[in-house]
Amino acid sequence: HPAPLFRKDFEVTSQIQKATLYITAAGYYKATLNGRRIGDIYLDPAWTDFSKRIYYTTYDLTNILQNGTNCLGVTLGNGFYNPLPLKMWGRRNLRKVVPTGNPKFIAKLILKYNNGKTEELVTDDSWKFASGPVAKNNVYLGETYDVTKEIKGWNQPKFNDKSWQNA
Asked: What's the pLDDT tens digit per position in 4-27?
């Protein structure tokens, strides 16, 4: 399946004291805010036994949020959660020895305003998603990218996502 793109517009209504994003995935993710990559970690989160734990990353977005409309964007990749049925060491099929499935992510953005108000933006069915230009991806074999399927501005505020599906 093509790597899905997820997006969520939200409003910053007054002066921010602190903005913290908590995010993780079963598989890999790339997060953006208003079209700019969040952080510098690639292939995140680190591999783990997904049946026991999944690591998450915390980002301070305080200085990069803008007043008014903002957009969080997330692209998912298969990572070790959805490997091809390759034989490792000539005999072990990863899909049979580790927990697997379609990539998923979860995130929470906590906005603390100077006026004492706190707001939480969480992953729910109000997020929108569509297939993106990454047609195939694998941790060992790389990715197949179809430039004709690029969606210009998809992770920018006020993008028209009416044709996208609800998550």
From this structure: 999 999 999 899 999 999 999 999
